[in-house]
Amino acid sequence: MKQQNQWLLLMSTSIVSFMSTIDASIVNIAVPKMSRDLHVPNNQAEWVVSVYLVSICVLLIFFGRLSDQIGRVRIFQTGTLIFVTGSLFCGLSLNLPMILGARLLQALGASMTMATNFGIITDIFPPHRHGIALGVNSSFVQVGNIAGPGIGGLILTWLNWHYIFYINVPIGIIAYLLGHHFFPRTPRSTRKIQVDVPGFSTYAGAVISFFVMIFWGQMIGFGDWRILSLLVVTIGLFAAFFVIEQRVAAPLINLKIFHNLGFTFGILSAMLVYACGYFNNVIMPFYLQDRLLLSSAIAGLILMAVPLLNIFSAPTGGYIADHIGAEKVSFYALFIFLIPEVIFLSIQPSWSIWWLIIGLALFGTANGAFQNNPMIMGNASPEFQGIAGSIAALGRNFGMTIGLSLATSLLYFGISRQAGRRVTTYPDAHPDWFVAGMHFAYRFALGMIILAIILLAVVLYRRAAKEKRVM
């Protein structure tokens, strides 16, 4: 394939990656307006966010396995069209059931594209360029993950929330046409499609049970017997899933992929980083608009510091990863994360706004330099590239969803601790309580980064020890 066509296809897959990822976070800032326009409580409007994320987590592994059987490009292109259609229906929605149905359609398309984009890129580019190619794609994915509140704030300054979804339609059509023209034509597979129904059923049940437990627990408390019962159900279903996968002839996930410590710890460290990114998505819009009393436009511009720096650092990190290894680059990037996390858990409203901008810029730099995709895909053998890509995307979405839940729960727990009573909304009469809750939440974010550092330190130590034995 011509080098020019490789980069055009990379842009096509990356644009779709950006859209499907940003739609997980861009809605957060629009929830209050959607709540008013759709005449539903704020907690019900939040379903528009959670339904999308949970559905993707349920479907990702299925489409990763299916793409290994019938072709990644076919799944990716079909998913792009479904995602665009879902986006159009989201924009046209006039009530909560309509938009939830449209979000399910969006999630179906997004899961098809997320499950296949990494595998497509590693197929298109030669191995010595995987780092830079996946780094470029990673910049789109990570910008999509963290730019939602900023871009959403800018759109809502001049337009209504429907345009958050409408904007996907022309961009998605262009990306589809690019792919249709340049993707290599592959013959239809004549292999019989094998679907691991028992494995998928137990996996889907476990994921749904897990997220119902997380979201419901935020409302009624995690010590409630119903939440503890869901925890037992979740553990039981995951245990059943692992037993099934070891016994069926064509498992949904070949568990041998996790025997590679670099792959497993790469997934876990990526989940931790994405979870930390969601702390910014959840907490920073409140801090900027409700505590500092900035407009949506100004708040959006300040939050854009993260994606702007991310755009430059991700391909740079990918280029360096091609020379020294993705694990080393990611390990060094994690130390950069420590600086903004310390700023966020210390900052006061009396501080200059530049401290916040510097913290967000450093977060964006570290987020881009963290080479999770090359690290994960590089540790998966060729026969696992399809499922590895979907597991990487699953780890990202799990991290985002867990980050959403953790950030919200820790924020309000910190506020409640300061107030001496349970608080579940922004404390308008006591804005300093919010700052205390924010600091409390970011202490845990700092802890997650430290845990990620330990995981990658183990990987690098074991690799160095192995190379020393070979020598």
Automatic annotation (TrEMBL):
Q: Where is the protein localized?
A: Cell membrane
InterPro entries named among the record's database cross-references? MFS, MFS_dom, MFS_trans_sf
Membrane topology, from the record: Multi-pass membrane protein
Q: Is rRNA-binding set as a keyword in this record?
A: no
Q: Give the signal peptide, or none.
A: none
Sorted alphabetically, the keyword list is:
Membrane, Transmembrane, Transmembrane helix, Transport
Cross-referenced CDD domains = MFS_MMR_MDR_like (cd17321)
Q: Which domain of life is it from?
A: Bacteria
Q: Where is the Major facilitator superfamily (MFS) profile domain?
A: 9-469
Q: Pfam families, from UniProt?
A: MFS_1
Annotated membrane-spanning segments are 7-27, 47-66, 78-98, 104-125, 132-155, 161-179, 200-219, 225-245, 257-280, 292-317, 329-347, 353-370, 391-415, 440-461
Q: Which GO terms describe its molecular function?
A: transmembrane transporter activity
Output the Gene Ontology cellular-component terms: plasma membrane
Question: PROSITE patterns under this entry?
Answer: MFS
Name-wise, this protein is Putative transport protein HsrA
Organism of this sequence? Lentilactobacillus parabuchneri
